[in-house]
Each structure stands twice: as structure tokens, then as C-alpha cells.
Design brief:
Layout: E1 2-5, E2 9-13, E3 33-38, E4 42-43, E5 65-67, E6 85-88, E7 92-95, E8 111-114, E9 118-121, E10 125-134, E11 137-148, E12 151-160, E13 166-172, E14 183-187, E15 191-192, E16 199-201, E17 207-209, E18 219-222, E19 224-225, E20 232-238, E21 242-248, E22 256-259, E23 264-266, E24 270-274, E25 279-287
Antiparallel strand pairs: 1-2, 2-3, 3-4, 5-13, 6-7, 7-8, 9-10, 10-11, 11-12, 12-25, 13-24, 14-17, 14-20, 15-19, 16-17, 18-22, 20-21, 21-25, 22-23
């Protein structure tokens, strides 16, 4: 693994060449944040199977991110037969082992070949870049992590290299430790929540766990929300540090939350469509 470190925080980042046993078909391999540790308090992030030393690659741990739609958008994977291959952005060639539509990494975990990444490092930053081409689709992807004090900036840049427009649908998936009192997070934009078995929304905007839910089984819930501006701040209750924050610089198009007995996560989706040679850049900033 690579490490970004200062007097306060240490960030462990998977090496896209030597840490592939910790990677699968779900999360972007380049810029995969596997753990963030505090110099005084130790690890700050968890995962669905934490503290298992080698969690299932679908579950993972830390603060990974994922491209939800296969390479080529809605068109390319539809015609791929079982036994054929689908390209996953930021991952590589994935075998289609399930006929279930739409394509999901959950049902298609076999990676045929991972993408190669070019890695550039400075004292407090790491940049990983890859490219892929599949039929009329093509892209260049850059993941850049920068550590400054107690702040980690995770930035993604995408350029369309193909003749066909490229659909991008991406989300960060940070895994925070559960809290004793069940208090989880609140958003800077108005949100509401349908009735569900695991979560409830307090009048002051805090999302909380229902204590009587079967939390080893987990709970997933999409939130209803009203986008405001071009970004959003999430205040996350942390069992070690108190309140920590994350800031995105885009208006989310979908906003689910998920948790089990080991972890809790929010997943604000980013979406765009890029024409040839068009670029997009977006990111999330974690403040501890």
C-alpha cells in the first residue's frame, strides 16, 4: 500500500499493482482509500466486515468509490452474453456470470483483467491515471488524493476519448464506525425519508438508527431530497472524534444511506454525460 502521512493523519491507499487481492469488480481500483488513521486514536474508518483483515472485495473497507454503470452506459452490457465480458470503469474487464439485468458487480464478481495505472507521488499527494477503450467508447480517468492537516481531498477527473458519448454515474462510499447512541448524520440540504425498518429522521435533521432493527443484516434506504446549489456538506457523528464532515462539490442525483452492525455509509451519486474530448472533474473532501 501507499501511505500519505503527516503529524495527525495517515492515509493508506491500495497499490493498483500489488494490492489487487483486495480489489474486485465493484470499487475503482485507482485511489482506493483503504484506511485513515489518527496519530493518537488509531483507525477512523471501518467496513461491513470490519475488523476482518481481508474482507470480501465486494464489501471492502475505508472510503472507496465506485462507477455504478458499466463502461458504455446502458447500451454496451445489454448485449453481452453470460460468459462474455463487460468493462467496468476504473476496474477493467469483468466476466458476465449472471443474466440479471441491470448489470451489477454484486452478481458479477469475476475480474478477467485489471486496468494498468500510472502512479505519481509527492509528499502529500498521490495521483493515479488509467485509460480504457471498448468499441466506440473510451476514457481517461484520473484519481488524485491530497492530504493537508486533517483534511483529505479525493478528486476524480474523467475525459471522454471515444466517438460515442460516455455516461458516468459515480458515488463515494465512506465507511464510518457505528455509534453507541445510534446518531448517524445530517445533510446541509433538505431530506426526507420513507418509512423503513432501520432508520428514522429527527426533527432537527439528524438521521438515526432504530435500535430494534436486525443490524447484523443491515439496512439500505434511499432518501428523498431537494438539491440546492452545486454542493453539499454532510456532518457525520464519529464514535472516536465526535462530529466529522464531508463536502461534495456537485449536486447529487441520488442519495442512499446504508449501514449494518459494523459500519454506516452515505452514497451521494454524481452523474454526467461527456462528448468526445469533453472533461468533468468532481470530488469529496473529508475533514477529520
Amino acid at each position: 500500500m501507499f501511505t500519505l502521512e503527516n503529524a495527525e493523519l495517515s492515509v493508506s491507499v491500495l497499490d493498483p499493482e500489488t494490492d489487487l487481492e483486495r480489489c474486485g469488480s465493484r470499487y475503482c481500483v485507482g485511489g482506493y482509500i483503504y484506511q485513515i488513521s489518527d496519530a493518537r486514536h488509531g483507525p477512523l474508518l471501518t467496513g461491513p466486515q470490519y475488523p476482518k483483515p481481508h474482507p470480501d472485495v465486494f464489501d471492502g473497507q475505508g472510503a472507496p468509490d465506485a462507477f455504478h454503470n458499466p463502461f458504455g452506459g446502458e447500451d454496451a452490457p445489454v448485449g453481452a452474453p453470460v460468459g462474455g465480458e463487460v468493462r467496468v470503469i476504473g476496474v477493467g474487464r469483468v466476466r458476465r456470470t449472471s443474466p440479471i439485468q441491470p448489470f451489477s458487480a454484486r452478481h458479477n464478481p469475476e475480474v478477467i483483467e485489471f486496468l494498468p495505472w500510472r502512479v505519481e507521488r509527492t509528499d502529500m499527494s498521490i495521483t493515479m491515471t488509467t485509460e480504457d477503450q471498448f468499441g466506440d467508447w473510451g476514457y481517461r480517468l484520473t484519481r488524485r488524493l491530497t492530504l493537508d492537516g486533517r483534511t483529505l481531498d479525493s478528486r476524480t477527473e474523467m475525459e471522454c476519448l471515444g466517438n460515442t458519448p460516455l455516461s458516468v454515474r459515480w458515488f463515494p462510499h465512506p465507511f464510518y464506525p457505528p455509534t453507541v447512541d445510534g446518531l448517524l448524520c445530517r445533510f446541509s440540504i433538505p431530506v426526507s425519508m420513507p418509512e423503513n425498518p432501520g432508520f428514522y429522521l429527527r426533527e432537527d435533521g439528524w438521521i438515526c438508527q432504530k435500535p430494534d432493527h436486525d443490524w447484523p443484516r443491515g439496512c439500505f434506504q434511499a432518501l428523498d431530497f431537494t438539491p440546492q446549489g452545486d454542493g453539499m456538506t454532510i456532518v457525520q457523528r464519529h464514535s472516536i472524534l465526535g462530529d466529522v464532515t464531508a463536502e461534495i462539490d456537485y449536486a447529487p442525483v441520488y442519495l442512499p444511506i446504508w449501514g449494518n452492525s459494523q459500519t454506516f455509509s452515505f452514497e451521494p451519486y454524481f452523474a454526467t454525460k461527456l462528448a468526445r474530448e469533453e472533461r468533468a472533474s468532481w470530488g469529496i473532501v473529508y475533514r477529520f
